[in-house]
Write a structure and sequence with these properties.
Elements: H1 3-34, E1 48-52, H2 63-69, E2 73-77, H3 78-98
Antiparallel strand pairs: 1-2
This protein binds zinc ion (2 copies).
Length: 99
């Protein structure tokens, strides 16, 4: 491996760890505020996703941003979350067609 590649690999590893830790912290915080019951189907599964209600990309938000914006999040199970995103995209497509 070239040193450059090795460095990149380590950097990636570091970032993955960093994001994982931040994600855990964020999730814990949101569960304490919002609970972990899916707002659509009422299930509480271990793999809950906190969705940003305005459709902002929520996977890249930092912990500090989430603390300020926690009221904009809703707990969803992974199933409903996927469905919602598909539906949002579908709605956007429809809007595009209408214009
Ligand atoms: Zn659900
Ligand atoms: Zn989402």
């Amino acid at each position: 491996m070239t040193p450059k590649k090795e460095y990149r690999g380590r950097y990636k590893e570091y970032m993955t760890k960093y994001y994982k830790a931040m994600y855990r912290k964020t999730k814990k915080f949101l569960i304490s505020k919002l609970g972990n019951k899916c707002v659509i189907c009422g299930n509480s599964k271990p793999r809950m996703v906190f969705h940003e209600i305005h459709g902002k990309p929520h996977k890249t938000l930092t912990f500090n941003q989430v603390i300020k914006l926690w009221k904009n999040f809703v707990p969803l199970c992974s199933h409903c979350h996927n469905a919602l995103h598909r539906y949002t995209k579908y709605k956007e497509k429809m809007r595009e067609l209408e214009w």
